[in-house]
Specification:
Radius of gyration: 17 Å
Helix content: under 10%
Largest sheet: 4 strands, antiparallel
Order of helices and strands: EEEEEEEEEEEE
Strand order of the largest sheet: 1-2-3-4
Structural class: mainly beta
Distance between the termini: 39 Å
Length: 179
């Protein structure tokens, strides 16, 4: 058995269902992790964000969402040393499941949240900051029981919608990442 320098293994979460879905390196060389938790928060399942240092030591955690189901799939560092998180919620928004975009600062404190979509199901799988400080969000959207269409939303720096587009025809279409 060989030991690897600068490696570590850690376990995070509570005593219920907790799952990590995305990890990104932070400006201070630590890591930001997002996922879902039933151990913490105020609802059925909440979005879960965890900050750890470069050695894997816990720094802070936060839950996001409302009283129903909130899931997040991606987290990215932003130019102001904060983070943008994307997923879906059925706790608030237009109805059904709505694409969910959350901005937090470097200490994990909530700055704003936005939902996108209509009455059916809309999911955000990835969000990325654009060069002008806004965001582009991608995922999939279901309309009136039809197959999914790939879904993209462009926002300004405050998460307000500039435009929304869907792509696809008769099959199952989705955007999973954008770079």
């Amino acid at each position: 058995l060989l030991s690897q320098p600068n490696t570590w293994v850690s376990v995070y979460g509570g005593n219920k269902y907790d799952r990590g879905t995305s990890i990104a390196q932070t400006h201070d060389k630590g890591y930001i992790v997002c996922g879902n938790t039933s151990s913490y928060g105020m609802g059925n399942t909440d979005a879960y964000v965890l900050k750890i240092d470069s050695a894997g030591k816990y720094e802070w955690q936060n839950t996001l969402g409302g009283p129903n189901i909130d899931h997040v799939y991606s987290v990215q560092a932003t130019s102001d040393s904060g983070f943008i998180i994307s997923g879906y919620t059925n706790g608030f928004g237009a109805g059904g499941y709505d694409a969910y975009l959350v901005k937090i600062n470097s200490a994990g404190l909530f700055q704003w949240q936005k939902t996108f979509g209509e009455n059916d199901w809309d999911f955000a799988y990835w969000a990325e900051q654009t060069s002008n400080g806004g965001y582009v969000v991608c995922g999939e959207s279901y309309r009136s029981g039809k197959n999914s269409q790939a879904y993209m939303v462009r926002t300004d720096a405050n998460g307000d919608t500039l435009w929304t587009r869907t792509f696809g025809l008769t099959g199952e279409d989705a955007f999973k990442e954008i770079h």
